[in-house]
């Protein structure tokens, strides 16, 4: 079994019940505020409609002069009701808070300063801000409603995957942006949408600061003892079979931090210079000695 390093690790109080609920609400509120600020500081003044209901509100302002927050409420409310009817009350409860507070924060922060009028910088930094905010909302097991609800409805009724449904809806918004705002603005919107997705993904799966090493050697027992004693990391022994020889062998799997890779390679090399070592990235590791999910 994998024995992780737990030195200097204080006990973690699990988040559940009312405490978990409070943390979730806090994440949804903070994430919605960050999303609103990024929208008002970067996307809206530079007319970047990077998908979703927020993108439609940018188009509505450019076309009709409509207040973005009101446009978002006008779209979110019927979509929320439709989501409750088709997806169930449980989904609606999780989406109600974000669907309401995000347009509210957009309305309350609409008169802030504009950091840049460069659409490229706005699409990048707006994408980072929106991605960070939405990532926190998702961490709080919430949703900002809008086209996300519609994507899940399409998934349920049509059989399309959720990701494909999102791509189709966001693609429709960006296509509209090309007609309303021009092709160049639509291209900037694509950049913003891409950056947003990457930041959300980074928050969901974590950053690659942890590595997984697979060690194949005829001296696995000696290497495992050296790792346990000198590196103070646990390991897992995997049963494997050689593809060419068909011989049974043991493969060691070790999870280490970025700063421990050099020491691990030195330990393996000192025991068996001919050992075969594979090192890959682990985007997120949960458990004793590493991050523990609340």
Automatic annotation (TrEMBL):
Organism of this sequence: Paenibacillus albidus
Transmembrane feature ranges: 21-43, 63-84, 91-108, 120-138, 159-181, 187-209
Topology in membrane: Multi-pass membrane protein
One Pfam family per UniProt: YitT_membrane
Keyword Transmembrane annotated: yes
Major site of localization recorded for this protein: membrane
Keywords attached to this entry: Cell membrane, Membrane, Transmembrane, Transmembrane helix
Name of this protein: Membrane protein
């Amino acid at each position: 079994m994998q024995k992780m390093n737990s030195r200097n690790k204080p006990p973690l109080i699990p988040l559940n019940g009312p405490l978990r609920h409070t943390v979730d609400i806090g994440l949804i509120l903070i994430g919605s505020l960050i999303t609103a600020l990024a929208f008002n500081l970067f996307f809206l003044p530079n007319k970047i409609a990077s998908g979703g209901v927020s993108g439609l509100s940018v188009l509505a302002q450019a076309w009709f002069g409509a207040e973005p927050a009101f446009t978002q409420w006008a779209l979110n409310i019927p979509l929320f009701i439709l989501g409750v009817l088709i997806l169930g009350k449980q989904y609606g409860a999780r989406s109600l808070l974000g669907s309401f507070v995000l347009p509210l924060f957009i309305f309350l922060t609409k008169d802030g300063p504009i950091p840049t009028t460069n659409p490229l910088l706005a699409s990048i930094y707006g994408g980072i801000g929106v991605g960070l905010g939405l990532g926190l909302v998702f961490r709080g097991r919430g949703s900002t409603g809008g086209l996300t609800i519609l994507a899940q409805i399409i998934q349920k009724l049509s059989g399309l995957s959720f990701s494909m449904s999102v791509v189709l809806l966001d693609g429709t918004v960006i296509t509209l942006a090309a007609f309303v705002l021009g092709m160049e603005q639509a291209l900037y919107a694509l950049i913003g949408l891409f950056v947003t997705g990457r930041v959300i993904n980074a928050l969901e799966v974590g950053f690659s600061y942890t590595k997984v090493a697979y060690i194949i050697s005829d001296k696995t027992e000696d290497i495992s003892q050296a790792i346990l004693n000198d590196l103070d990391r646990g390991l897992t022994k995997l049963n494997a079979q050689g593809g060419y020889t068909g011989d049974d062998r043991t493969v060691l799997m070790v999870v280490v931090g970025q700063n421990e890779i050099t020491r691990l390679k030195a330990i393996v090399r000192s025991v068996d210079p001919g050992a075969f070592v594979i090192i890959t990235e682990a985007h997120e590791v949960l458990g004793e000695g590493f991050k523990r999910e609340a």
